[in-house]
């Protein structure tokens, strides 16, 4: 399950690169970079926990995953100008 955190980090990283290339949503890049780092750290943390914890891992990881999924949805809505300009090109 930690792989989802990695994929969210990759999504945020690619979205930031796209925004820089197109010159759209530049004011949101700093927070996007922060959330990319947070998702990467969560991936590494849960990768370690999946082997270290005997029980309770799925509950903790599931709760954090739901929060991360909500965050990804909110970021996608905020970065709409970047996403829409890609679809139109």
Number of helices: 4
Give Rg in angstroms. 15 Å
Order of helices and strands: HHHH
Tell me roughly what share of residues is in helical segments: over 70%
What are the low-pLDDT stretches, counting only 5+ consecutive residues below 50? none
Distance between the termini: 34 Å
The biggest sheet amounts to:
none
Tell me the fraction of residues in β-strands, as a range.
under 5%
Record field, number of beta strands: 0
Overall morphology? elongated
What class, by secondary structure content?
mainly alpha
State mean pLDDT (0 to 100 scale): 90
Give the tally of structural domains.
1
Account of the 3D structure:
The chain has 89 residues and is mainly alpha-helical. It has one domain (3-88). The protein contains 4 helices and no strands. α1 runs parallel beside α3 (57-78) and α1 (3-22) packs across α4. The chain is elongated, with a radius of gyration of 15 Å. The N and C termini lie far apart (34 Å).
């Amino acid at each position: 399950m930690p792989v989802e955190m990695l994929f969210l980090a990759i999504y945020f990283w690619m979205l930031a690169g796209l925004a820089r290339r197109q010159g759209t949503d530049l004011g949101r890049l700093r927070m996007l970079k922060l959330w990319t780092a947070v998702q990467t750290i969560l991936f590494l943390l849960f990768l370690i926990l999946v082997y270290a914890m005997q029980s309770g891992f799925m509950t903790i990881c599931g709760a954090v995953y739901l929060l991360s999924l909500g965050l990804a949805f909110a970021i996608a809505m905020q970065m709409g100008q970047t996403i829409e300009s890609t679809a139109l090109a």
